[in-house]
C-alpha cells in the first residue's frame, strides 16, 4: 500500500501513532475501513500486541476463539453501505470486547484501552471517555470537529489525486505531512495547558504501532458445498498453516482476469519452493463459465498447475465478500489476510504485480 496515512500527528504528550485501519489505498486495492475505524478488531490479532499485553498461550487461544466468532462478519462488512458497515463494526467490536473480558485480566484490559486510545491518534479527543476526563467544553468539541473535518477533506482530496494519478506517493506524503503539522498546531491552540497535561495519563506508555503487521481477519475457509475441485481432492486453508497462500477469484472469459494469469503463474514458478501456495477460484459470470468442462479446459489451456475450485454457486465469492473479477488475496502463514487487490494488477501502468510480489516475499521471510 502507499505510505500516506489518514491519521495525523497528535499533540504534545499525545502519542503519534499510525491508525491501524486508516491506510488509503492505491488504485486497484480495496479499503477495509469503515466510518469508525475498528481499532480493537484490528490490533488484537497481532503478535506485537499480544506481547505488549503479556498474553500467555492460553490467553492467545482465547483471543483466537473470540476472533473466530467475529471475523467472518467483519470481513464481509467491508462491502456494506457506510451506515450499515459502521453499525456492524460497532456491534462486532462490543461482542469482541465482551469475549476479551473473559480472557484478559484487569491489567491487560486496562492496557488494551490505552492502546485503543493511542491507535486513535488525535481522534482520541472525540471519544466520549476522553471528552469527559479532559472536561472538553462544547465550544472546544465543535472546534475539534471542524478541524478534523478539514483534515479529512484534505486527505480525501489527496487520495483521489493518487487514484487519478495526478500526484505520486512522494508528493502525497509531503502534502500529508503538511496537513499533519497544520492539525497539530490547531489542536494545540484549542486545548488548555491542563488538558494537554492530562492526555499522557489516558494513553499510557507509548506503543510502537509500526510493529503491528496483522490488521485484517483470518481468511474464510474454502467452501466445498456446491463447489468442485477440478483436480484431486483440493485443499483446506487450515491445512496450509506455515505456508503463504494466494487465493484469486476469476472467470475464465474475463479479459482483466486473463491479464493477471501470467502473474499467478510466475508467482507459482518463482516462489512455490519457498512455501507459496496459489489457489484459483472460478466463480462464473457467463453461461460458458458455468460449464464445468469448459472451465476445466480453460484451466488447462491457461497452464494452471495449482488447485482450482469451481465455485459454481458463488458460495465462496459471497463468504469472501468479493465484488469483482479478478480479486486477489494474500494470506500469511497463520492464515490472516495481509493484502488484497481488486482488478487487473497492472492496470494503466499501476505497479500492482510488483507490490503484491513484494508482499508475498516479505511474508515468506517472516518467521512463524
Automatic annotation (TrEMBL):
The keyword Coiled coil applies. Keywords: Coiled coil. Residues 213-365 form the Thioredoxin domain. It comes from the Bacteria. GO terms for molecular function: antioxidant activity; oxidoreductase activity. Signal peptide: none annotated. This is Thiol-disulfide oxidoreductase ResA. It comes from Allorhodopirellula solitaria. The gene is resA_2.
Amino acid at each position: 500500500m502507499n505510505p500516506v496515512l489518514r491519521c495525523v500527528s497528535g499533540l504534545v504528550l499525545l502519542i503519534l501513532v499510525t491508525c491501524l485501519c486508516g491506510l488509503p489505498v492505491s488504485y486497484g486495492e480495496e479499503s477495509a475501513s469503515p466510518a469508525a475505524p475498528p481499532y480493537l478488531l484490528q490490533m488484537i490479532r497481532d503478535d506485537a500486541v499480544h506481547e505488549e499485553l503479556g498474553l500467555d498461550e492460553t490467553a492467545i487461544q482465547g483471543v483466537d476463539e473470540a476472533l473466530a466468532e467475529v471475523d467472518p462478519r467483519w470481513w464481509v462488512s467491508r462491502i456494506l453501505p457506510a451506515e450499515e458497515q459502521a453499525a456492524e463494526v460497532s456491534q462486532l467490536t462490543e461482542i469482541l470486547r465482551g469475549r476479551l473480558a473473559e480472557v484478559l485480566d484487569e491489567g491487560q484490559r486496562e492496557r488494551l484501552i490505552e492502546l485503543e486510545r493511542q491507535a486513535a491518534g488525535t481522534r482520541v479527543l472525540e471519544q466520549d471517555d476522553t471528552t469527559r476526563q479532559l472536561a472538553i467544553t462544547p465550544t472546544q468539541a465543535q472546534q475539534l470537529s471542524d478541524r478534523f473535518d478539514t483534515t479529512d477533506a484534505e486527505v480525501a482530496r489527496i487520495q483521489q489525486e493518487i487514484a487519478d494519478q495526478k500526484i505520486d506517493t512522494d508528493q502525497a506524503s509531503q502534502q500529508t505531512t503538511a496537513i499533519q503539522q497544520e492539525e497539530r498546531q490547531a489542536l494545540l491552540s484549542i486545548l488548555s495547558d491542563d488538558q494537554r497535561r492530562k492526555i499522557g495519563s489516558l494513553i499510557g506508555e507509548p506503543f510502537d504501532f509500526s510493529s503491528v503487521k496483522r490488521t485484517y481477519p483470518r481468511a474464510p475457509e474454502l467452501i466445498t458445498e456446491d463447489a468442485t475441485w477440478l483436480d484431486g481432492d483440493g485443499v483446506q486453508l487450515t491445512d496450509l498453516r506455515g505456508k503463504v497462500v494466494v487465493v484469486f477469484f476469476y472467470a475464465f472469459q474475463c479479459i482483466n482476469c486473463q491479464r493477471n494469469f501470467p502473474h499467478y503463474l510466475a508467482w507459482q514458478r518463482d516462489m512455490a519452493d519457498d512455501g507459496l501456495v496459489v489457489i484459483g477460484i472460478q466463480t462464473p459470470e457467463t453461461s460458458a463459465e458455468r460449464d464445468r468442462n469448459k472451465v476445466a479446459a480453460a484451466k488447462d489451456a491457461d497452464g494452471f498447475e495449482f488447485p482450482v475450485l469451481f465455485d459454481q454457486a458463488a458460495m465462496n465469492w459471497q463468504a469472501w465478500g468479493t465484488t469483482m473479477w479478478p480479486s486477489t488475496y494474500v494470506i500469511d502463514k497463520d492464515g490472516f489476510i495481509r493484502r488484497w487487490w481488486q482488478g487487473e494488477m497492472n492496470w494503466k501502468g499501476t505497479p500492482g504485480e510488483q507490490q503484491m510480489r513484494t508482499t508475498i516475499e516479505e511474508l515468506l521471510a517472516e518467521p512463524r
